[in-house]
Amino acid sequence: MADLFGTGAARPGHRPRQDSSAMTGAHGLVGRDALLGQIAAVLAGRAALGPALLLRGQPGAGKSALLDTAVAAVRAHGGRTVHAGALECEAGLAFSGLHQVLHPLREWAGTLPQRQRYALDRTFGVVGGDAPDRLAVSVAALALVECAAEQAGALRIVVDDAQWIDPSSAEVLAFVVRRTGAGVAFLGAARPGTDSPLDQAGLPEAVVAALDAEAAGQLLDAAHPALPPAVRGGGRGQSAGAGRAARRAERASAGRARGAAREPAAQRSPRAPVRRPGALPPVRRAPPVAAGRP
Ligand SMILES: Nc1ncnc2c1ncn2[C@@H]1O[C@H](COP(=O)(O)OP(=O)(O)O)[C@@H](O)[C@H]1O
Ligand SMILES: [Mg+2]
């Protein structure tokens, strides 16, 4: 586990960056060695503050990149890793976040006492009956997590965008994370200033701050090695989120390309709508029913 981030494993969902390996190390992230070391200790169960950590950072700071890197590396070390990502569109759907975490562990549900299995089944609406109280759900979720950790050798629960976990799930997850013992680690990421039961669980936190000027400059150089010094100089001496540094370089390149070859207005393609990655496709609306139609 000591070489957790020395594997060079590819990170799913992230574009490889040009010429970046020389200055980023095998994990491919710029300026994050200290945070990755902290994460590795948590996932290996040897962190002084315990096997849980919540990363905090503004959008674009690099939280997801850190989680993806950690997950890719730790998966090579065996055990089981659940990588969940809360969705804004499910923030109001009770227990949807808990379902994301527990569903990948369902193969072990059969080993739970019937009462606990039933509590989870009723929570997720798999069987009918009154919803169990929150304590019963929490105890059943804890039992499933501990059982999975024991059977798999180790269990890491990784939750991205935790600011969008529905409150019911956050409450149960906080209960579970506060009680889990050896073999279970929790790593989450959330924006600052949220108010969820998971925030109030008293978990150790680490701030994903903007990259310092040196790292932001390295990122610009790696992503856009041909950037003219006058443009690239704008990135020096300022700190920035990783995403912001990359976007600034892209804007600069796009501006130069526009200057080089201006298309006549009539030939320009319409501006594509901005869509978040993973967002649902646009809804096709049925035409309104004409008044007076049968
Ligand atoms: N340390 C880093 N080195 C290189 N690229 C990074 C780094 N951190 C983030 N990125 C890139 O910046 C963009 C935004 O990062 P992301 O992890 O999505 O931010 P967040 O999850 O905090 O909103 C992504 O394209 C990501 O791959
Ligand atoms: Mg993110």
Question: Could you give a short description of this structure?
Answer:
The chain has 294 residues and is an alpha/beta fold. Helix content is 38%, strand content 9%. It is built from ten helices and five strands.
Question: Would you spell out the secondary-structure blueprint of this structure?
Answer:
Blueprint: H1 21-24, H2 33-43, E1 52-56, H3 63-75, E2 80-85, H4 96-102, H5 114-123, H6 134-152, E3 155-160, H7 167-179, E4 184-190, E5 205-207, H8 213-223, H9 229-232, H10 242-260
Parallel strand pairs: 1-4, 1-5, 2-3, 3-4
Helix pairs in contact: 4-7, 5-6, 6-7, 8-10
The chain binds adenosine-5'-diphosphate and magnesium ion.
Summary tags:
five-stranded parallel beta sheet; 294 residues; 38% helix; Rossmann fold; binds adenosine-5'-diphosphate; binds magnesium ion
Q: What would you note in describing this structure?
A:
The protein has 294 residues and is an alpha/beta fold. It has two domains: 21-207, 3-Layer(aba) Sandwich (Rossmann fold), CATH 3.40.50.300; 213-257, no CATH class. Helices cover 38% and strands 9% of the residues. The protein contains ten helices and five strands; from the N terminus they run H-H-E-H-E-H-H-H-E-H-E-E-H-H-H. It has helices at 21-24, 33-43, 63-75, 96-102, 114-123, 134-152, 167-179, 213-223, 229-232, 242-260, and strands at 52-56, 80-85, 155-160, 184-190, 205-207. It has a five-stranded parallel β-sheet, sandwiched between helices. Strand 3 (155-160), helix 7 and strand 4 form a beta-alpha-beta unit. Helix 8 (213-223) crosses helix 10 (242-260). The longest helix is centred in the middle third of the chain and has 19 residues, at 134-152. The N and C termini lie far apart (69 Å). Bound molecules: adenosine-5'-diphosphate (ADP) and magnesium ion. The site of magnesium ion has 4 residues, from helix 3.
